[in-house]
Amino acid sequence: MGKRYRELERDELSAQQKALFDSIASTRGGVVPTPFHVLAESPELASLTQALGAFCRYRTGLSPRLSELAVLITAAHWGADYEFDVHAPEALKAGIAQPVIDALRNGKVPPLEDDDSRLIHEFATVFYATRDVPDRLFEDAVARFGRRRVVELAGVLGYYSGLAMLLRIFRVSLDKTA
């Protein structure tokens, strides 16, 4: 399979793309993450994606641990190795144990130790497997997290599914060579 990803060079960017890159880099220590090199082909889409991503990653009512768990489940579901590899260290920092990360990476049921994590895992994996969430599981999630957090969980799953799809379509790997 041929390479589709290309890292954009600053001197080839339009004024709109440069403004986008500057905006993204200013909040990330001067770095523009790889997905935004792809997205910058459409600066408006990149800008909207950046805003949604900031909310999904940092401002939902889900704890960082539960959010990162949802991200890893999503990346594993889509086979998005780049996304998984970028988020695995964040998951560790958020309190997800290495054996859980390894199990998710290998398509195994992870050894989750708390009810919240098990509920997030079941919710996401059942949805990805069946494209539905059974009433009992939905009601359990609402009872535990509230409707707002279930909406936000769906948003996290959707946002990271979209990124995973983008990364797969453009064949982005962690080393960016494939």
Task: Please provide a brief summary of the model.
By secondary structure, this protein is mostly helical. 67% of the residues lie in helices and 0% in strands. The chain starts with 14 loop residues before the first helix and ends in a 9-residue tail after the last helix.
Give me the secondary-structure topology.
Layout: H1 15-26, H2 34-39, H3 43-58, H4 64-78, H5 81-93, H6 98-105, H7 115-130, H8 135-145, H9 147-169
Helix pairs in contact: 1-3, 3-9, 4-5, 4-7, 4-9, 7-8, 8-9
Structure commentary:
- With 178 residues, this protein is an all-alpha fold.
- The protein has 9 helices and no strands.
- The longest helix has 23 residues, at 147-169.
Radius of gyration: 17 Å
* N-to-C order of helices and strands: HHHHHHHHH
Largest sheet: none
Count all strands and give the number: 0
Helix content: 55-70%
Quaternary state reads single chain
Low-confidence stretches: none
Query: What class would the helix/strand composition place it in?
Result: mainly alpha
Straight-line distance between termini: 8 Å
Strand content: under 5%
Assign an overall shape: globular
The number of helical segments is: 9
Query: Can you give the mean pLDDT?
Result: 93
